[in-house]
Amino acid sequence: MCLENFTLHFSAIQDPRQSAKVTYPLFDILFSSLCAVIAGAEGWSD
């Protein structure tokens, strides 16, 4: 999956967080999480 496809598929997801408390955009969090899972992460400490 290329980055453009990932962006297209996940751009419809609404960010429920309060905008004043957002440090990282939702896309960055989702992409980092996907990369971690692909790399074999099994939990938050990985």
Automatic annotation (TrEMBL):
InterPro entries in the cross-refs: YbfD_N
Organism, as annotated: Photorhabdus hindustanensis
Domain H repeat-associated protein N-terminal as annotated: residue spans: 9-46
Domain of life: Bacteria
Name recorded for this polypeptide: ISAs1 family transposase
Pfam family, one: DDE_Tnp_1_assoc
